[in-house]
């Protein structure tokens, strides 16, 4: 893979929450980058910090209780964390747009969908209402909504879930963002609609050349969408690499466990599905050493006392990284 | 034959369907018109507004200038339908003119309540923290006084008069309205569509005014309609106590106040303005009830 221009680069980002019950290091020193025209998937269980990472990029984490403790988020060479409130507002929706998990509630129930797309367009572009409405119709047509002239005048409750997610995508793409953050955009949809939405997002990406940061816990979706994958666990990146590398050659026991937990058609009947034992640790009370050690079948003494660093494991490819003590000893292949 | 009729029918129906708007407010309005008691209330309100607007044309006499002491204390007759008061003024004319004061007070005091209540409630609910703390403590201080006593105190402090009534009655209601708005705003500020709007670059004021407040309107409309009737009652009470619009301005409350002394000899002096108050309050309450049935999903059966 040739070197592409870096769109966004996150360096040692730490987003902590200071709550009544204690400190929650939701995102704890993660670094990654997204290149132009690339789809990066962020994978992990619920509560591992995926969404907080996304919200941090747009600076939408409520502060307090949240706080950006350290790090920088470079977008077009500028640190977003140093931007003022007003500057961020001009970036949101215009340069970086976001699609949310719940299409059913992400649209304002008292306005027509056309109206809502118009609002966004008029916010960032010098257009009058009529021109903005034309953009809205055009966007709805692009995302494959039939009869867009009629649909723009409808209210969210008159649309199905898949339609609403299309509207959300239309809204997010209406100002041609350079980066689209999709926070589990297909989780609330049924499988056929999921496939349609994924197709649509791929198509839109090719048309506009924008990058996508795709947050999901569905490895099927990852296989479908990702150029590169970042696996998160308890606020940290445990492994990253290209989609093929992650699927064919997982190095971290957690990634391995996730992949083994996918039901397979070839598997023997009556064979129990693999599960990763235990629960995601409470963020108030994280284990010492490697965060994954209580659930890891390979855990050794060092795992319980010292945290493994995220290191490059392929001398030819600096993007291929993993954080596990086992790598020091042997290649994990199971 | 039947077939063509059916065809005709379906053809006729189609343009009707196209006209049907899908605007939720229009849908609610249409549903409201199906509620007979609410429509009855609406008729009463329209009737009152009609009277207030056309009082000069409808009144047989001038409510203030046409006094004639030789005709004082006359009971209802063909000449004076509602009788005359102690100055020989036509009570019917005064009741008709009184509707102007009552409706104006009802509306003006609600405008005051809404503007204070929505502003403070939205600020408190949206920004939370210290802002919320200060505003809600103020609201609690407000609530510690009995509302009507507080209105009396304001009237006495500023000096009685019509504008005092607007302000006094409007001001005592703000805490309830602010609390209502605050609760609604707190509910919606966490909703996904607000988060989505923020992620697309909307500012705080835009989120409050364009995303959140339009969603809070249903309970506000209900409470405002209901509030109009209680404001009209309160105005009558203030006037009855001599703290409202000053004589000779005809208001229902002050007419009853002066009629009080003659309640045994000339009961019509107190009965007719009293009936007018009852009718007005009844109309607004019926309409308000109907609105609540239509707009408040929690009350729906």
Please summarize what this structure is.
The complex is a heterodimer of chains A (334) and B (301). With 334 residues, chain A is of the alpha/beta class.
Task: List the main descriptive attributes of the protein structure presented here.
heterodimer; A: 334 residues; alpha/beta; Rossmann fold; eight-stranded mixed beta sheet; four-stranded antiparallel beta sheet; 25% strand; B: 301 residues; mainly alpha; MetI-like fold; 13 helices; 0% strand; elongated; Oligopeptide transport system permease protein (chain B); transmembrane helix (chain B)
Which fold name corresponds to the CATH topology of chain A? Rossmann fold
Q: Treating each run of at least 4 consecutive H or I residues as one helix, how many helices of chain B?
A: 13
Tell me the distance between the termini of chain A.
Answer: 27 Å
Distance, first to last CA of chain B: 43 Å
Which architecture of chain A would the CATH scheme give at its second level? Answer: 3-Layer(aba) Sandwich
State the assembly state of the protein chains. Answer: heterodimer
Specify Rg of chain B, calculated over alpha carbons.
24 Å
Overall tally of domains of chain A: 1
Task: Please mark out the parts of chain B with pLDDT under 50 across 5 or more consecutive residues, or reply none.
Answer: 6-18
Would you give the CATH topology of chain B?
MetI-like fold
- Total DSSP E strands of chain A: 12
Count of runs of 4 or more consecutive helical residues of chain A: 12
CATH superfamily of chain A: P-loop containing nucleotide triphosphate hydrolases
Uncertain residue ranges of chain A: none
* Biggest sheet details of chain B: none
Largest inter-chain contact set:
A-B, 31 and 20 residues
